[in-house]
Amino acid sequence: MSDRIGAAAALAPSASLSVEEVRSVRHWNAHLFSFSITRPASFRFRSGEFVMIGLPGDNRPLLRAYSIASPSYAEELEFLSIKVPDGPLTSRLQAIQPGDMLFLGRKPTGTLVADALLPGSRLFLFATGTGLAPFLSLIRDPDIYDRFGQVILVHSVRRTSDLAFRQQLEAQLAGDPLVQDQALLQFSYVPTVTREPFRTRGRIGTLIGNGTLFAGHASGPAKLDPATDRIMLCGSMDMIRDLAAHLDGLGFGEGSNAQPGRYVIERAFVG
Questions:
Q1: Is 231:263 a contact under the CB 8 Å cutoff?
Q2: Phi first, then psi: what are they for 133, rounded to 5°?
Q3: How far apart are CA 176 and CA 79, in angstroms?
Q4: How far apart are CA 155 and CA 130, in angstroms?
Q5: Is there a contact between 165 and 172 (Cβ–Cβ < 8 Å)?
Q6: Which residues pair with 18 in a beta bridge?
Q7: Is 189 helix (H, G, I), strand (E, B) or coil?
Q8: Rounded-to-integer distance, Cα 143 and Cα 141, Å
Q9: In terms of Cα–Cα distance, which of 173, 181, 120, 116 is closest to 147?
Q10: SS3 for 125?
Q11: Full-prediction pTM beyond 0.90?
């Protein structure tokens, strides 16, 4: 174990970090992987929040914020990550194996939570790349289906192989112990690919503009309506900047934990 990543002897818990064991790792392609770790009995979070994950560094732990992909009731914590060959943390994290040890922050936080939104009829979750992670948490939380009549997840990626969790999402969460019945009636999944042939092509803004997003996926008006729709954005800075400006122009107001609104982004990731 001494030559493994995050060997137990190299990690020690602190006031702000616990030490957890990697339980599973899945490599989706050369650019993307997910992993799960043990969950401390005292760890509490709201679906959609993020937490710090890390490995030992030369002088201090190397830490990065990761959205939690598992729902708030899950026994293990799951995360979705890109692979960055020269990334200080990610270049090492992509080599983890079950049995390795990682640092886990003790204080999750974030604004991609239901409490930061005003009541509404339709909830649109707009994600690019690994921005899918917090929405994987939210769509498996029964509370989200009690709050919104429709939940529409749009995931935009460059390559078809980047559509992580696609089979589970296309099955409308069939087999999920808590939400499968609600999801069958209320959940829609809209994958879209920008650089390869696929049944749905184009960026999220394009799908909104040409109406593709609403055709067969969302009942109600074929446009975003601030009176009834609520929106969460997570992913690339370009997507968030462009769509946030579009939403502001339509009369959507950004929300926060302190003051719920009609759309939210995770400002900890975008500055």
A1: yes
A2: -55, -55
A3: 18
A4: 9
A5: no
A6: 104
A7: strand
A8: 5
A9: 120
A10: strand
A11: yes
Whether 81 and 191 have beta carbons less than 8 Å apart is answered as no
Supply 263's token pair: 């759309």
Question: What token pair was written down for 23?
Answer: 């339980």
Handedness of CA 100, 17, 46, 142 (dihedral sign): positive
Which residues make Cβ contacts (< 8 Å) with residue 54, sequence separation at least 6? 17, 61, 62, 63, 64, 89, 102, 103
Q: With beta carbons less than 8 A apart as the criterion, state whether 256 and 248 touch.
A: no
DSSP for 89-115 reads THHHHTT--TT-EEEEES--B-S-SGG
Among 185, 181, 118, residue whose Cα is nearest residue 147? 118
Q: What is the pLDDT of residues 32-59, one digit of tens each?
A: 999 999 999 999 999 999 999 999 988 8
User: Nearest Cα to 232, choosing from 81, 142, 111, 145?
Assistant: 111
Q: Rounded to a whole number, what is the largest CA-CA distance in the chain?
A: 59
| Closest to 246 (Cα-Cα) out of 217, 224, 213 | 224
Written as one letter, the residue type at 123 is L
139 in Cβ contact with 125 (< 8 Å): yes
Structure tokens at 120: 């509404």
Q: Identify the CA nearest to 77 among candidates 87, 88, 66, 69.
A: 69
3-class DSSP state of 254:
strand
pLDDT along the chain (271 residues), means of 10: 49 95 98 97 96 92 96 95 91 96 97 97 97 97 97 97 97 94 96 96 95 85 94 96 97 96 84 40
The values of phi and psi at residue 8, to 5°, are: -55, -35
Q: Give the amino acid at 244.
A: A
Residues in a beta bridge with 122: 150, 229
Q: Give me the residue label for tokens 């009369």.
A: 251
